[in-house]
TrEMBL record:
Pfam families: Ribosomal_S2. Belongs to the universal ribosomal protein uS2 family. HAMAP family: Ribosomal_uS2_B. Its main location: plastid. This is Small ribosomal subunit protein uS2c. Keywords: Chloroplast, Plastid, Ribonucleoprotein, Ribosomal protein. It is found in: Plastid, Chloroplast. GO terms for cellular component: chloroplast; mitochondrial small ribosomal subunit. It comes from Afzelia africana.
Length: 236
């Protein structure tokens, strides 16, 4: 049953441009049932279906958060990087908003080793130990720290595989999606008209190029996660 506070309206989705798909020449035929019309050479997404699947996704993350589950949000395109980081931090989720390193999940042992190194270097920097090393050694370790911060900064507190992964752009984050499929990790994916709706557990048809569209979808999911976390805290 949909939760009352998701409040997903067609008006706000239209205002955010959620309904604008790609050009009619650049589409995946599997998206046919998610498309309602063609307009000036552009496919128009069926917003009734968007609202339905977004509501289902909100229900899923609310339920998972209310049971203390962990989330990972993935969106590495430059224009969504800040949006992804802010959304994840607000909902106390892990995130990847730079480059997805191949094997980040499927080769978790290596990722975990890098995270331990990252945490150790951060501790050494905070305690001032790096500054007490010879300049050459300190400079090398600071470069390592900067590199690790860039690529692993959003998952520095992750101690195991996530329970649910939210993917902002299916095509851009295809490697991440395939890793989730391999590991059986449930995924929620924004899919534009050029995507394959069958790859994710919940596919939300939406414009994955417009910032306003992505922000709206993420805000709904983040709100549901925050509500679920509050429920978890109250019942603990």
């Amino acid at each position: 049953m949909a939760k009352k506070y998701w409040n997903i309206t067609l008006e706000e989705m239209m205002e955010a441009g959620v309904h604008f798909g790609h050009g009619t020449r650049k589409w995946n035929p599997r998206m046919a049932s998610y498309i309602s019309a063609k307009r000036k050479g552009i496919h128009i997404t069926n917003l009734t279906r968007t609202a339905r699947f977004l509501s289902e996704a909100c229900d899923l993350v609310f339920d998972a958060a209310s049971r203390g589950k962990q989330f990972l949000i993935v969106g590495t395109k430059n224009k969504v990087a800040d949006l992804v980081a802010r959304a994840a931090i607000r909902a106390r989720c892990h995130y990847v908003n730079n480059k997805w390193l191949g094997g980040m999940l499927t080769n978790w042992y290596t990722t975990e080793t890098r995270l331990h190194k990252f945490r150790d270097l951060r501790t050494e920097q905070k305690t001032g130990r790096l500054n007490r090393l010879p300049k050459r050694d300190a400079a090398m370790l600071k470069r390592q720290l900067s590199h690790l911060e860039t690529y692993l900064g959003g998952i520095k507190y992750m101690t195991g595989l996530p329970d649910i992964v939210i993917i902002v752009d299916q095509q851009e984050e295809y490697t991440a999606l395939r890793e989730c499929i391999t590991l059986g990790i449930p995924t929620i994916c924004l899919i534009d008209t050029n995507c394959d709706p069958d790859l994710s557990d919940i596919s939300i048809p939406a414009n994955d190029d417009a910032i306003a569209s992505i922000r709206l979808i993420l805000n709904k999911l983040v709100f549901a996660i925050c509500e679920g976390r509050s429920s978890y805290i109250r019942n603990s």
